[in-house]
Structure to design on (291 residues):
C-alpha cells in the first residue's frame, strides 16, 4: 500500500513537472481580452497546466510550449518572436490571414462566425427573405465569392457593393437597399468604423432595413441581430482545443471558426422596424440544429 502511494506520488510529481507552459498575451489587460484569457486559464489551471497572462509590453517568455495571442496587438507581438507555436484568438479571419498566412506553427480560432451560419440566422429570423446586401471594404472584398456560395447554400441571393473609403458607405447602402431586404455587416475597418457606426445604423433605420452584425456592442448600437462567440465561449473552446492538441508537443492544425455562438436581438430596433422576431434562445436552438 505504502509503495503504491509512493509510486502514485512520484507519478503525480512527474505529471506536474511535464505540464505544458502556456503564455497568454492579451492586447489589453481588460475587457473582452482579459475575459477570454481568464476563461481559458481557469479551465487549464484547473487541470494542472501552467498558464501566465501578460501584455505585449510586459511579455518575458521563459520557454513556453505555446503562446496564445488574444487580439491583434498580441498576435503581432507573438509573431515578432518566432520559434514557438502560436494560437490566435479574437482576431477576424481576414486580419489573421493578412498577418500570419503561411507561417508554420501559427493557427487561429477566428473572432468572426462562418458566412453560411450568418446567412442561415437571417433566414431563420426573417422568413421569406430573398436577398441581402453586403457592403465590402478593401479588406473584405476577397470574401465576395465565399458570400455567394454561402447565399446559395442558404437559399437566398446576395448583392454586394465595394467601397474604398468610409465616405462611400452611405451611397453603397442606398444602392443595395433597392433589391435587398436586410444588410450584413462584416468586420472590415473601412465599413465598420467606430466613428461612423452611429450614422451607419441611423441610415439603415431610415432605409427600413435590418442589419446582422458580428458583436454584442454592434447589436446594442443599432443592429437588429448579432451572431458571435462570447469571451467565455471562446476561452473554453480554445482551452479544449489546446488540451486535445497536446502530446509531446502542440499540434493544433489549421485555423478554424468557433463552433459555439451566441445570438443577440435588439428588441428596440425590432419594434421600430415592426419585425416580429423569435426569442434569442429559439433562434439559437434552430441555428444549432442546422450545424
Amino acid at each position: 500500500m505504502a509503495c503504491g502511494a509512493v509510486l502514485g506520488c512520484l507519478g503525480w510529481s512527474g505529471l506536474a513537472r511535464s505540464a505544458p507552459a502556456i503564455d497568454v498575451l492579451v492586447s489589453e489587460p481588460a475587457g473582452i481580452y482579459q475575459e477570454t484569457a481568464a476563461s481559458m486559464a481557469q479551465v487549464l489551471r484547473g487541470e494542472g497546466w501552467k498558464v501566465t497572462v501578460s501584455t505585449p509590453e510586459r511579455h518575458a517568455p521563459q520557454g513556453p510550449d505555446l503562446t496564445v495571442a488574444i487580439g491583434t496587438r498580441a498576435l503581432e507581438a507573438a509573431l515578432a518572436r518566432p520559434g514557438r507555436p502560436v494560437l490566435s484568438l479574437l482576431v477576424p479571419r481576414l486580419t489573421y490571414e493578412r498577418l500570419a498566412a503561411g507561417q508554420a506553427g501559427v493557427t487561429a480560432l477566428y473572432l468572426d462566425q462562418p458566412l453560411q451560419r450568418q446567412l442561415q440566422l437571417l433566414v431563420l429570423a426573417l422568413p421569406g427573405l430573398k436577398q441581402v446586401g453586403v457592403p465590402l471594404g478593401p479588406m473584405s472584398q476577397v470574401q465576395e465569392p465565399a458570400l455567394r456560395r454561402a447565399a446559395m447554400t442558404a437559399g437566398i441571393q446576395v448583392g454586394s457593393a465595394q467601397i474604398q473609403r468610409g465616405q462611400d458607405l452611405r451611397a453603397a447602402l442606398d444602392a443595395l437597399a433597392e433589391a435587398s431586404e436586410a444588410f450584413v455587416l462584416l468586420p472590415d475597418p473601412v465599413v465598420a468604423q467606430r466613428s461612423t457606426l452611429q450614422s451607419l445604423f441611423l441610415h439603415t433605420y431610415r432605409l427600413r432595413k435590418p442589419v446582422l452584425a458580428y458583436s454584442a456592442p454592434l447589436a446594442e448600437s443599432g443592429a437588429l441581430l448579432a451572431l458571435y462567440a462570447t469571451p467565455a465561449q471562446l476561452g473554453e473552446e480554445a482551452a479544449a482545443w489546446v488540451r486535445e492538441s497536446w502530446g509531446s508537443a502542440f499540434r493544433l492544425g489549421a485555423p478554424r471558426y468557433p463552433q459555439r455562438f451566441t445570438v443577440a436581438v435588439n428588441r428596440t430596433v425590432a419594434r421600430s422596424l415592426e419585425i416580429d422576431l423569435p426569442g434569442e434562445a429559439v433562434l439559437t436552438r434552430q441555428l444549432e440544429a442546422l450545424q
Notes: Residues 228 and 262 are 5 Å apart (CA to CA).
